[in-house]
Amino acid sequence: ACGYFFIVFWSILRGREDMQKVIIADEEERICRLIEALVDWRALDMEVAAIAHNGLEAAELVGQLCPDILITDIRMPGCSGLELIERVKKERPELEIIIISGYAHFDYAKSAIKFGVGEYLLKPINKAELTMTLERLRAKIDCRIREQEDKQQLERKSKNDVRRLRDLLLERLR
Fold this sequence. Notes:
By secondary structure, the protein is α/β, with parallel strands linked by helices. The protein is 57% helix and 16% strand. It has six helices and five strands. It has a five-stranded parallel beta sheet with strand order 2-1-3-4-5, with helices on both faces. The longest helix has 47 residues, at 127-173. 26% of the residues are buried.
């Protein structure tokens, strides 16, 4: 498992220039602005790429912007947060999602878990809890990226080794 401090150090060493992108989706403008203002996005190596006020707009933005994280409410016009999650997860299963809702109903949480949502925060939004959640997701995303890069590097090395072995075998057969 990747630790938070290792990921931060590794990201700095690696020189990752692109910040993780976040889309905020809530029908209430003030909630969107509150979420945007609560977090020190730069300190987390993140940026708010867009804000949506309904589920359809949010789905479209996810398709266009390919964010790393989606922060969404459960109830929105257009399509509900759960419908949004189901839709975007089909196309982007790696997308991390935070649900922020005023509803503490178990059925909502159960449905969210079914669609792969790992984070469910209740309103009113707590700055420390939101920041810690984003830090956890950032570390998880960075770990996944590092694992993908390691896998690609191993695949390249393996192909090079096979070429060298084949060339060596052909040379010895001559």
